[in-house]
Amino acid sequence: DQIDLARLSSLRELLQTHGFQFKKQLGQNFLVDARVLERIVDAADLIPGDGVFEIGPGAGVVTQVLAQQATQVVAVEKDRALAPVLDTSLAGLNNVKVVYADVLDVNLNEVWNEFSNCARVSVVANLPYYVTTPILFHLLESGVPLHNVVVMVQKEVADRLVSGPGTKDYGALSVAVQYYAEVDKVLRVHPGAFIPPPNVESEVVRLRVRKQPAVIVPDQTLFFRVVRAGFAMRRKTLLNNLSHSFGFTKPDCEHLLLCTGIEPRRRGETLSLDEFARLTSAIYEKLH
Ligand code: SAM
């Protein structure tokens, strides 16, 4: 039988037995709330035949439950000191493979070979907050087929991920992630749900990855460059930010915006994905 790690006393005992010390710099806040655990796994909407890629299994609290519901689980943990802990908590679960590495160094296309028996693959992760954005992009840009991505993130990041044009939290991160996925909030989580408690509020979000990106662009790298340029200085107009970033003269840039049907004095934060895509096409034409 598995140790019930969602019970605080069992988790503490397991960590103590192996002399484990939390490393703040690795974003180690382990979940000890059974209700939150249930909501995270439910959001992944797993069925037999599914594969799950977990980032940062920690002591294996979430991993145990994933292994019961999915066909194959691959978990990547950076901290090797957790190996004896995970060997104990995951003992007897023969559909889990733990890889000790920094997830940013992992070639996801290679890992996906482990999922050859799986109809679809989702990601579940209680993320280390210091690398949330690089990890999301590592996943989304890898091109591996993803079904749901259920992640616990800092509340402020969750707000940015779901925000639309014209709101204060809308920025380059919102546009870039919404290009790949439909995003919705699942659950707000208070610091007391973890040991040790983090200094920030958390939120679970779900990314339902699109089969095709939300908009069609002639060059994806250019699209992301246009988006970053659009938000470069939030208080400046598109005209200013774009002419500065791309080295266009003001009149040229004004002309380009007007031809795209975008008022040059608008700010980047008011542009929809579709408008950023049209702008990318216009800049692409101008550069080629
Ligand atoms: N999943 C566990 C839970 O819910 O209790 C632990 C979550 S804890 C917030 C984040 C985990 O990610 C830690 O175990 C940490 O060691 C691991 N981690 C931190 N940086 C990582 C990286 N770059 N690659 C892989 N794992 C990482």
Automatic annotation (TrEMBL):
It catalyses: adenosine(1518)/adenosine(1519) in 16S rRNA + 4 S-adenosyl-L-methionine = N(6)-dimethyladenosine(1518)/N(6)-dimethyladenosine(1519) in 16S rRNA + 4 S-adenosyl-L-homocysteine + 4 H(+). It is an enzyme of class 2 (transferase). Keywords: Cytoplasm, Methyltransferase, RNA-binding, rRNA processing, S-adenosyl-L-methionine, Transferase. It comes from the Bacteria. It holds the Pfam family RrnaAD. SUPFAM superfamilies: S-adenosyl-L-methionine-dependent methyltransferases. Belongs to the class I-like SAM-binding methyltransferase superfamily. rRNA adenine N(6)-methyltransferase family. RsmA subfamily. This is Ribosomal RNA small subunit methyltransferase A. It comes from Alicyclobacillus ferrooxydans.
